[in-house]
Amino acid sequence: MEIIKAVLFGIVEGITEWLPVSSTGHMILLDEFVKLKGSADFVNVFLVVIQLGAIFAVVLQFWNQLFPFQFKDKNRPVIEMEKMILWGKILLACIPAAVIGILFDDVFEAMFYHAVPVAIALIVFGIAFIVIERWNKGKRPRMKTVEDLTISAVLIIGVFQLIAAIFPGTSRSGATIVGALLIGVSRKAASEFTFFLAVPVMLGASLLKVLQYGFAFSGSELLVLAVGMITAFLVSIVVIRFLMDYIKKHDFQAFGWYRIVLGIIVLLCSMAGVIQV
Fold this sequence. Notes:
mainly alpha; two-stranded antiparallel sheet; 2 strands; about 5% strand
């Protein structure tokens, strides 16, 4: 049963991590009905570390865009400066969330990791998606590719990622995409940069959780973690491809409406006592 539960969590993680619908909101609902066995500390580690599977999917999908070393000469690699600049932008955008997250992660989790704040964040950013997409309708994006992103644009996107780090339910991908669209970035570039940002953010978050836990995993816990990560990896590959195809013909308004509906469901479940978080 624990393996089946790990598969379910991996599926939900793989879908909701990349679609701008909040993995936190979905995990809260799933955790109410599918309880993993083990200590609360292990469950917290599991919910973060399975994100590594999703990260490996990004690295695989965008390897050619992210890997800066080309082995054209067998004796020495050639460094592609455009990709090094891209990594500089990625790390710059991650600084606000990384600093604040390391210092105040436990504080924010205690304050806002509850059903009502999560539901409010779901609804607010759902409305933001709808409003911004309608405001942008007919406008040509000023930055069409990830390479077009300016330093100021990267910093603004980093601030929006910080908002997601503070308020669970905002959705990291949702917040960064909203921020990018707001300043004139194309949907394709906004989505790709969001995927790229996830690599250092989730690697850092997973490492931090594992260090806090102390590597004290039993054999069964390691098995559950592995199953969750592999499932998240496989599902993420499909979801990333779906999203990149979807945005070629559609905007993000559908995800905005979905977030609003989910937020209302979370609020109603909280009021009915179904959710105790």
